[in-house]
Design goal:
- The protein is α+β, with helices and mostly antiparallel strands and 440 residues long.
- The protein is built from 9 helices and 18 strands.
- The protein folds into 3 domains: 94 residues, RNA polymerase II/Efflux pump adaptor protein, barrel-sandwich hybrid domain (OB fold (Dihydrolipoamide Acetyltransferase, E2P), Beta Barrel), CATH 2.40.50.100; 103 residues, E3-binding domain (Dihydrolipoamide Transferase), CATH 4.10.320.10; 203 residues, Chloramphenicol Acetyltransferase (2-Layer Sandwich), CATH 3.30.559.
- Helices cover 29% and strands 22% of the residues.
- Strands 9-18-17-16-12-15 form a 6-stranded mixed β-sheet, with helices on one face. A 4-stranded antiparallel β-sheet has the order 1-8-6-3, with helices on one face. It has a 4-stranded antiparallel β-sheet with strand order 5-4-2-7, with no helix packed on it.
- Strand 17 and strand 18 form a beta hairpin.
- Helix 2 packs parallel to helix 3.
- The radius of gyration is 26 Å and the shape is elongated.
- It starts with a strand and ends in a 7-residue tail after the last helix.
Amino acid sequence: MAQIIGLPKLSPTMEEGVLVRWVKAEGDSIEPGDLIAEVETDKANMDFALEDEGVLLKFLVEAGSTIKLGAPVLILGEAGEDISELIAEAKSQLVSTPLATTAPATTAVPASAPAVANSPAVATPSGTRLLASPLAKTLAIELGIDLRTIAGSGPGGRIVERDVRAVIESSSVQAQETHDAAPRQVPATAEVSPTALAVIPPGPLSVPGNDGQYVDKPLSNMRRTIAERLTAAKRDIPHFRLTTSFEAGPLLAFRKRLNELMGGKGRVTVNDLLIKGIALALRRVPDANVAYTGEAIRYFTQVHVGVAVALERGLMTPVVRNADLKGLGVISSEVKDLVDKAKGRQLKAHEITGSTFTISNLGMFGIDSFDAIINAPEGAILAVGRIVRQPIFDDEGKIGMGQRMSMTMSCDHRVIDGAVGARFLDELVELLESPESLAL
């Protein structure tokens, strides 16, 4: 019997997704577990598979559409079934659970305001299907641009990434030219489009209600999810922090020798060494490799290290699985691959879930030390600062120059006590100050 299939929750934080592409075609027969589509969520591209068997009778959404969680996406059944009633039902469901709009609706914008609405051509008349690539739609959402105001330069008038970026550049030039000509004020009674505000740089332009002192840019799906998760973690997890430092000179010398031995086959970073050190320290102190479930303390039997990666659109945490069992060359290669995927929005669900401990390193940005918010439901996160040259005393009491690196461990006090956190950091420092042990 035919049935409507809705968009499932493909990741823990997913509220909506962009249907990147259909892998199957209408009329195809499928078996349980078959992949039918690829969906981009707030953090990565996820595989959409069905657990039912049957024939894909009707696709209810097109590739590139942004879909709310649970919204109808296809009709599955047996070949030859009458699905006219189901199609009507799906349409009514889409009214009550609408597709997420690809861009905010625009209101009237004064003719003098250099905004996206002044684009030279309106690409999509009312009632006409919008042709735009998934990347163009995603970029438009993040930048607050109405795709209906853009003329596409792709095949068949399809809007592509360069078209969206051209509108931003054109709007910025217009805003600058107007600013250079003369300061101006928007009348208090005028309505200004949220889309227009998203691309007008701060300047003499006054916006009703704020006198031109700020510009609001709508939250992207990723930034909204980050805000919600970090707010919950900060509110619900009783954080306490432990800070230590260690002599990083031996670690740097070991890294240099290791890269020389590897030649051109790869480049191990300080962060790769820290990941391996964390993994081995968690093996030595398994009480730190835990999570709070509400009913119990969960002790993980494997060590999966999450690596915080800063992107223009937000923060992602891909996972190095079984890091304690992998060599430094493998870890280095994996991290590089995961970071490249994160930048290209190509991470899959298994590559961003399941971490048992996270490292956040801001040393490359010149930060000496900082506190990090725990990546729930993990029990701890390690914040790493830069290496600082400073005077130190050697074992004989003589003063010399050292290279110190600071580390701050944020712990969930419900599952990790101060003594446990201190033991973990002590083991980690021992490993990092005797770095040959990381290669064993």
